[in-house]
Amino acid sequence: MKTQVAIIGGGPSGLLLGQLLHKQGIDAVVLERKTRDYVLGRIRAGILETGLVDLMRRAGVSERMDRESFVHDGTVISSGDVQFEINFKELTGQHVVVYGQTELTRDLYDAREASGAQTVFNAENVQIHGADNDTPYVTYDVEGNQQRLDCDYVAGCDGFHGVSRKTIPETIRNDYEKVYPFGWLGILSETPPVHEELIYANSDRGFALCSMRNDNLSRYYIQCSLTDSPEDWSDEAFWDELKRRIPAEMADKLVTGPSIEKSIAPLRSFVTEPMRWGRLFLCGDAAHIVPPTGAKGLNTAASDIHYLFEGLRQFYSNGDATGLDTYSERALARIWKAERFSWWMTNLLHRFPEQSGFDLKMQRAEIEFLRSNREAQMVLAQNYVGLPY
Ligand code: APR
Ligand code: PHB
To answer: Residue ranges per domain, the chain?
Structure first.
């Protein structure tokens, strides 16, 4: 089999790239290790920067998102019972969109199936060959039979645990990583959100986040120990702890209910450089991971896809490879700023085991400065709504 672009990974990065290429008349085949249902079974965050919304519109996959998403003009930050709003709209003229990333991925799958573009599910043992020469190809197994896909380029959209990043020789690749000493215990409940905007809560007991998917589906998180497991937390224990970490006026109006999903995610900052090796380009979680505090996971994948799509569009339309040759440098410039913001938000709002009394005073002073200084709020708002591509 032959294609122009072999896309490894059928998550949001791979699917968005595939849809943009299809709209441009560039052929791409998606090789996904799992099934569509398995991919859509993952619960993921729901904050979209307008850059990602624009890409979905350009890909022709925005009808349901435009119908069902919510515009949020700001967010609440709290520390104990002190709370204040960061008004993105007033500070930057921009907003963010709340729309479940699982739904965004579902929309992308529906669009890909409607387009007739090829997706191979249950593609096992994917291997990339010849990425460092002019005739790359990918091999993979389906039902135990090895297949070969010849291509011009390979887009590694296969996430943190994929094969693409590991294909770049360790003598060329530099990995940068920070692992945080806690996790996020998250639940989904069919209850109305406690507030019309998100609440990022700092407290002496640890971080909490109040988010939502729609007006009767709420998403809540509390910082937890890495030794915890979801089974350690009854719904009642979760709700009681959440109430202790958010302002009393919010706790008083919190509507609780049975969890329909409960899971723990570790927090990590990670970047690999470079994001290109010959004909192989890394995108999204294959190249970088952020702690979810800044809601930047998919939003940094989106700017990677923007840069790579523009480079491929330029090359296939007039042979100019400038966009491809500058991809890694341009993508990394924006990724490191998102890594900084996510690291900063995580340090601002979480309790760290080794924090001294002085460290706690510094954290509280940082939050108080943010509460009382418009320019500090402007900086947070500019990063949260998304820095320019
Ligand atoms: N071969 C084929 N497919 C693979 C392989 C492999 N060796 N390894 C992983 N995959 C598939 C996974 O099954 C998954 O569907 O690649 C896909 C990667 O998807 P994600 O991990 O969601 O990564 P990405 O598409 O970059 O999404 C980035 O989106 O959902 C948000 O916040 C989330 O940060 C994440 C962001
Ligand atoms: C979510 O809704 O899952 C969510 C929102 C904002 C974040 C992280 C997760 O920063």
So the answer is: 5-72+97-177+268-346, 180-266+352-385
Asked if 162 and 217 count as a contact pair (C-beta separation under 8 A), the reply is no
Taking the centre of ligand 1 as the mean of its atom positions, its distance from the CA of residue 9, in whole angstroms, is 6
- Residues 60-91: pLDDT tens digits? 999 999 999 999 999 999 999 999 999 999 99
What architecture (CATH level 2) is domain 180-266+352-385? 2-Layer Sandwich (3.30)
Query: Mean pLDDT across the stretch 263-274?
Result: 97
CATH classification for the domain delimited by 5-72+97-177+268-346, as one of 3.40.190.10, 3.50.50.60, 1.10.10.10, 3.30.1340.30? 3.50.50.60
CA of 57 relative to ligand 1 center, distance in Å: 22
367: three-class secondary structure by DSSP: helix
Write the residue with the smallest CA distance to atom 6 of ligand 2.
295
**What's the pLDDT at 265?**
96
Residue 282: closest CA among 272, 293, 294: 272
User: Is the full-model pTM beyond 0.85?
Assistant: yes
Classified as helix, coil or strand, 196 is coil
The DSSP result for 280-340, as a single string, is: EEE-GGGTEE--GGG--HHHHHHHHHHHHHHHHHHHHHH---HHHHTHHHHHHHHHHHHHH
Residues annotated as part of the active site:
72, 200, 292, 296, 384
Q: Report yes or no: 97 and 56 within 8 Å, Cβ to Cβ.
A: no
Site of tokens 């573009």: 117
pLDDT value for 44: 83
